Amino acid sequence: ERRFPGLERKRGGRLWESAWRSGLFTLVAMVALVLTVPLWLVPPLALVIPPVIWGWLTAQVMTYDALAEHASREERLDLQREHRWPLLLIGLISGFLGAAPSLIWAISAMTLILAPLLIAVSIWLYTLVFAFSCLWFVHYLLAALQRARARAGEAFAVASVALPPEPGSAQG
Q1: Do residues 53 and 33 lie in contact, with contact meaning Cβ atoms separated by under 8 Å?
Q2: Of the candidates 68, 50, 71, 53, which has an alpha carbon nearest to the alpha carbon of residue 134?
């Protein structure tokens, strides 16, 4: 409300559609995780594949949810298409940040002794990454929506100025 006070809410998304999409994309991500498990035996791939899959999932789910309230269906689809690569990059960075708490468990030889502390730190980090990801997607997409609407408004204004007056009108 503070950063985008004049942004009209077109309510192009629905709760059931968000839940359906989230469930579907989560299922696809789970299948991808299961199918790629043999690749995790290759050391560098074990550190790359899961965050990439989670990043893709994050981009798919967050993009819809960030635009559901403010964008129409057409605006949402246009923004998803136009900003596909930046959104995927944001999702990938979020996926790698989300993998950070797992590294704490994997790296530490003192995991069993420090388990209560590591659990608290991991939950805090997961929550922090989730909140950061949500805010990043929302601010990026609402700014893109605002720019797209401004461009559409300018195009409409230019088109209406360029049109000749209608026959029989008081102009001309």
Answers
A1: yes
A2: 68
Q: 98 burial class (0-12, 13-18, 19+ CB within 10 angstroms)? A: buried
Confidence of residue 115 (pLDDT cuts 50, 70, 90): confident
| Nearest C-alpha neighbor of 88 from the set 55, 51, 112 | 55
Evaluate whether 94 touches 136 at the Cβ level (below 8 Å). Answer: yes
Identify the pLDDT of residue 152.
Answer: 84
Please report the pLDDT score of residue 52 as a whole number.
92
Q: Residue 117 corresponds to which tokens in the numbers above?
A: 């502390």
C-alpha span between 37 and 12 (Å, rounded): 37
Angle between helices 115-162 and 84-107 (to 10 degrees): 180
* Whole-structure pTM value: 0.78
**Amino acid residing at 36:** T
Structure confidence by residue, pLDDT tens digits, 74-102: 999 999 999 999 999 999 999 999 887 77
Radius of gyration of the chain (CA): 22
